[in-house]
Structures are given as C-alpha cells and as structure tokens.
Design a protein that fits this description.
Blueprint (H helix, E strand, L loop, with lengths): L8 E3 L2 H9 L4 E3 L6 E5 L3 H11 L8 E3 L3 H7 E2 L2 H10 L4 E7 L11 E5 L4 H10 L3 E2 L14 H8 L5 E3 L11 E4 L6 E4 L5 H7 L4 E2 L7 H4 L19 E5 L10 E4 L9 E3 L3 H17 L4 E5 L7 H13 L1
Parallel strand pairs: 1-9, 2-9, 4-7, 6-10, 11-12, 13-16, 14-15, 14-16
Antiparallel strand pairs: 2-3, 3-8, 4-8, 5-6, 6-7, 10-11
Helix pairs in contact: 1-5
The protein binds threonylcarbamoyladenylate (TXA) and magnesium ion.
The site of threonylcarbamoyladenylate has 26 residues, from β6 and β7.
Length: about 325
Amino acid sequence: MRENKVDTILTDSPREAADILLSGGLVVFPTETVYGIGASALDEAACKKIYEVKNRPADNPLILHVKDLDSLRECGAVSEDALRVFKSFSPGPITGIFRKKNRDLFTAGLDTVAVRIPSHPTAAEFLRLANVPVAAPSANLSGRPSITKIEYILEEFFGKVDCILRGPDPTIGIESTVVSFVGQTPILLRPGWIDEADLKSVLATFEILNATDPATPIESGIPVLSPGLKYRHYAPSCKVILADSLANVPKEAAQIGFTFFETRPFQILLGSNEDYMRSLYSFFVECDRRKIGEAWCEIPREGRGKRALLNRITKAAQS
Ligand code: TXA
Ligand code: MG
C-alpha cells in the first residue's frame, strides 16, 4: 500500500479536480451511491495507482464513469436492451457491462467494460470537464465497507491521493446495480437501488446471478462473471450478525433496524429500506471506530432495497 506521503489537494472545484485527473493524478469524488477513487481510464499508469492505494487484487476490473450516453457508446457496444435500461435509469445508480469498443481503455485485461453515468451533480460536472472516461472503484481499502461520508474519506485517503473533490455526500449509500449486457440475456450481477421490478419494467427477460454467496462463482467452477464477486467484501472488523429481530442483541453490541427492544451503546433506528441503504456502511465504519465487537442488523423490509441490503449484509457477515 502507498504510504501517507502524497500532497493531497482538498477542493470544491470540479475544474481543479479534472485538471489533476488529466495530469495523471488520483481523485476521490462523491457519487450518488458511494465515494469513488478515480483515474483517467486512458492512463494505464494512473489506473494502476488505484490498485496500489486500495490494495486491490490486480484482476478485479474498475467501473468507468462517463458524462453521457454518447460517451458510454464510445466505450462499449450498447445493445437494444442496454439502451432501454440506460434511457430509463441513467444518469443514476446503474452500471452496464459491455463488449469493449475502445481498445485504449483500461479494463484490467478484459475484453468487456463496465460503464455508468452518475447523477450526482458534483460528479457530473467533474466528468463533463474531464471529458475522458474515469475509472473508479469505490473509495475504500479492498475488502472494507464502501465510504459514504466525507469525514471517513479524509481519514482514509488524505495523504494517499492527489485530490479529494468535496461535494454533497452520497444519498443512496450502496454501490450501483450491475447488469451484464454481454450475452443474449441480460444478467443482474450486483443488486442495488435499481431493482428487479425496475428491470422488469423495461426488459422482456433477464437472469439474476445468485451472488449472495461470494464463494459460489469460484468453487462451483462456473466462470466468474464479475471478478469482484469472488473477493471478500463490505466487511468491517467487527462480527456482523443478520437477525430476524433485535430482541436478543447483547448489551455491548451495536444495532441497526426498525424496532429496538433495548438501548445499546451504538444504534441506528431506521424508517425504511432507503434509510437502511444510506446508513449501512457508516454503521459498519462507526462500529469499528468505537471498537464494538458485534454489529446486529435486522432483516430488511420487503420491497426496494431488500435484495441489495441482504447481499451486502450477508457478505459482511460471512467474512
Ligand atoms: O456505485 C458504484 O458502482 C461505485 C461508484 C464509485 O461508482 N463503484 C463501485 O466500484 O462500486 P467497485 O470497483 O467497487 O465495483 C465494481 C464491480 C466489481 O465487482 C467488478 O468486478 C465489476 O464491477 N466489474 C468491473 N468491470 C467488469 C467487467 N468488465 N465485467 C464484469 N464485472 C466487472
Ligand atoms: Mg467496491
């Protein structure tokens, strides 16, 4: 991992951040889902620095962030299905996997490319000014929870990247929905805010990868559809417990959910699954900061967000 020796510029100016990116720098920026750590996708050396800073396995490819649909079409071959999905839900928290069109893009050796168009106003302006695809995984150390608050970004990345672009914190709170459009039938690879019902409203048919068990893709011998699925993910240091109810939470544990039975040293009371998505990662990060041993998570409600939340909590609980 890189040491804390880089001069980090903290800025509110998308222009300044874009200039730093175009001169080969790493820029942490907010998106509507989680913070990203970005480099120009046309600059292989800069992209490789992301792996160093995050301590990310070299074969786990990055999502490219672009300003609009025309730029997306320059990166990958966009099918009719993909077009329908992107016209309905983008700009927004949806990522497509496509056959790569531009050979100069950094894709960790793959002939496919993941692309999304963020709706976050600061990210959108930064991408418009940079005017190149920006390769950006979530801004967190590999295997750790994604980051959704600027204070945690400053703690984790100040001194490690060239620039931190400040803007409103993410409002969605979990990573984008990832759909592969490479084969005949689209496949939902990573659940997110955009859910099955949304996809059903625009796609005649699609498949859902059972990604709840991160070990499935490797141990089953099924080819790994999305390399990121085989790695440990989203996990804080504390033990994560998914429970039907919070009735039996031990005295020293933390709790997040809809109904509390007793007060605990750290807790987040939720009103909806949307709240849950927005709070989950900061709950995990805060549990670690407070050196809490167990983080109890109530099972999410039916409806939007349930699959995505279960996916993230189950992965965190497994590691
Ligand atoms: O919301 C998000 O998507 C955030 C923000 C920053 O945009 N980004 C994010 O990136 O979550 P990351 O790298 O943490 O997750 C990207 C996922 C990984 O599981 C990776 O393996 C997969 O997308 N991926 C990237 N390129 C791929 C490709 N060509 N084929 C299949 N999967 C790919
Ligand atoms: Mg990530």
